Amino acid sequence: MISIRTALDLQRAMYQLLGQRSISQITVEQICTRAFIHRSSFYRYYTDKFDLLGQMVMHALEELLAAERTDATGSAIIAQFIGAHTQILRHLLVTNAEGDNIRCQQVINDCFVTLAQTESSDHVFVTIRESQHPDLTAYLVSGAVMSIVQWLNNSGRDGQSASTQATIQATLATIFSLEQHTV
Question: Which positions fall inside the HTH tetR-type domain (predicted)?
Fold first, then answer.
């Protein structure tokens, strides 16, 4: 079991590094150096940098759900997540031969699927959970998140501004309201 202090040190180091560079440019050695933790300790708790990233994304989503107002919609929760973590999410938009972009998408998708399996009453996670194909529905949601981040990146918008939050929320609401069809 990972110590809370070690986990926080590693997450803080990864968060700081993601604020500076793309996930493809970050090594486990850099994470450990920044966290003042020996590399072998890292592998005692995580399989690789994407495992650490997955736990960070999961933690951020769980915090948003825990703080969720009862009147908040799924699109508002996801918009808040994007707004709060735009700088970090921008660095997950990678294109390289190593397939890091696929791994980043899989991390976000896995978090959505895992949260959908909980008893969360959030509309987005209920939609994923009740879908005939939860994994595919989660990919749609995670793809929408990364597409919005790409839009923010290309347009230089602030993901936390009120007008941008309203635009993101309206776009997500449209996506989440699409009728599911039986295949």
Answer: 4-64
Cα 152 versus chain centre, distance: 15
* Residues 81 and 61: beta-carbon distance below 8 Å: yes
Quote the longest CA-to-CA distance of the chain. 52
| Beta-carbon-side half-sphere exposure of residue 50 (alpha carbons within 13 Å) | 16
Q: What are phi and psi of 46, to 5 degrees?
A: -130, 150
Measured distance CA(11)–CA(75) in Å, rounded: 26
C-alpha angle 4-42-29 in degrees, rounded to nearest 5: 125
pLDDT tens, position by position, 81-117? 788 877 777 766 665 556 677 777 788 888 888 888 8
Handedness of CA 59, 65, 177, 171 (dihedral sign): negative
Contacts of residue 4, defined as CB under 8 A and 6 or more positions apart, other chains included, come to none
Do the beta carbons of residue 119 and residue 45 sit within 8 Å? no
Instruction: Tell me how far apart the alpha carbons of residues 34 and 128 are, in angstroms, rounded to a whole number.
Output: 37
Report how far residue 123's alpha carbon sits from residue 111's, in angstroms, rounded to the nearest whole number: 16
Does the reported pTM lie above 0.85?
no
Dist CA 162 CA 130 (whole Å): 31
DSSP 3-state assignment of 98?
A: coil
The residue assigned the tokens 């997950």 is 92
